[in-house]
Each structure stands twice: as structure tokens, then as C-alpha cells.
């Protein structure tokens, strides 16, 4: 992934997420009270985007026959 711009961008994004995981307490402490609600909404939205990305990555590894089956994700 390090050999092209798109791959490097993904790695930078994952590194930024790792910082939040590693330093969550410091991140929480650094957010001013008036920004907590909007930041929480933004984080939830990005969480949904990550979940969709994860599902799409998994689907790329499935045989075509498996993709035709109904998924339990929408249930």
C-alpha cells in the first residue's frame, strides 16, 4: 500500500485513527464543552462510513454466489 498515493492516504488515515485509540483520554480532555455534541455526531457519522467500508471490503472477497444471498445486515 505504501507504493501509491491512494495506499499512502489510507495508511495515514489509519494512523490518525490509531492516535485516537491510543490517546483517547487525551483526545476527550482536549475537546471543549461546546464542541462535544457536534464532534460526537461527526464521530458517529464516520463510524457508519467505516462500517460500510468494512462491509464492502468483505464483499470483495466473497464469491459472486455469496453476494446474491440476502444479508442479515439490513434486518
Task: Give a description of the structure.
This protein has 75 residues and is mainly α. The chain folds into two domains: 30 residues; 34 residues. It contains four helices and no strands. The longest helix has 28 residues. It starts with a helix and ends in a 7-residue tail after the last helix.
In a few lines, what is going on in this structure?
The chain is mostly helical and 75 residues long.
Any chance you could write out the topology, listing elements then pairs?
Layout lengths: L4 H18 L1 H7 L2 H28 L3 H5 L7
Low-pLDDT stretches are: none
Class inferred from helices and paired strands: mainly alpha
Largest sheet: none
Radius of gyration: 17 Å
Number of folding domains? Answer: 2
Order of helices and strands: HHHH
* Approximate helicity band: over 70%
Number of strands: 0
What are its keywords?
75 residues, mainly alpha, 2 domains, 4 helices
Amino acid at each position: 500500500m505504501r507504493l501509491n498515493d491512494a495506499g499512502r492516504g489510507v495508511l495515514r488515515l489509519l494512523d490518525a485513527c490509531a492516535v485516537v485509540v491510543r490517546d483517547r483520554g487525551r483526545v476527550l480532555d482536549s475537546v471543549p464543552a461546546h464542541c462535544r455534541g457536534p464532534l460526537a455526531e461527526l464521530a458517529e457519522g464516520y463510524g457508519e462510513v467505516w462500517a460500510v467500508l468494512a462491509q464492502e471490503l468483505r464483499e470483495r472477497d466473497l464469491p459472486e454466489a455469496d453476494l446474491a444471498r440476502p444479508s442479515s445486515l439490513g434486518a
